[in-house]
Design brief:
12 strands, single chain, alpha/beta
Length: 311
Amino acid sequence: MSAQRILVVGGSGFVGGRLLRLAVARGMAAASFGPGEAPRGDGIARFDGRAEVPGELLRALREFRPDALVWAAGHNPGGDGLARSATEDPARAVAVNAGGFAAALAAAAVAEVGRLVQCGSTTVYGPPSLYGAARVDEAAPPAPRSAYGLSKHMAEMAADWAAHALGLSVTTLRLPLVLGPGRWYVGAAALHARMLRAAAGGAPFDEAVPDSPFDAVHGDDAAEALLMLAGLPQAPRRLNMAGLTIDHAGIAAALERLAGPGRVAARAVQAPAELPLVDDSALRGLGWQPRHDLDAILTDTLREMMSKETA
């Protein structure tokens, strides 16, 4: 199956917007659903509404008739980041991230949209001490320690319900930290943002940084995986994405190389990792692999930052 019509809930967001642009570039019919959506003349159908409000998403699905629905929405009312927003209001985060997704699943079943892909998160896992030294695969039990991780774990449970009770084909893609031009660069990426601003000509960065590695991916590579999965109804229920494994000292060194010496200096200090590194061999086995390395992520982001400053 190759999806030819795709509707993205949360298509105005960082990942959802990239997915829609990719779909249009591939010649697909694309639609976005979310609060405040209005026509932009970009070839994307746009539907204003909230998934958790009964009937609103169903109307969009019946009008657009997509082959696949991708959930890329999340509770982030002030732009402070998904994790911080969930910490500040766990109840609302659960209502949107899990309850809204459950409502989307139900609407898809009524509208006979049989294929759904959810933007999940590796925050469903607990601290690395729970899993040992090896990378964590999809068989490892979730043990979220953050309100955001809790909400995403509950959304995965909703996907299980939809598969068994509604007969839907649902895959959750557990995303790592997603980087690249246009990202909010707050919350989990705040330290990364300060280094980028220094490399782009802001105040020099010279700080201690945690030495723990983490998984990350360029937003375009995340979009590629989501679009691929939209057309693979037999894909596994859950898939991890590791993308690249990097650390802050490595980011600083790359920025020094790209922007010139004297802008970014980082001293690695021992610090425990909050999340385990994940094994994404199952996803790669379906044909996906990241196309952007760390230099590409940083170069793309710096180019955007500098163009905005000179505009």
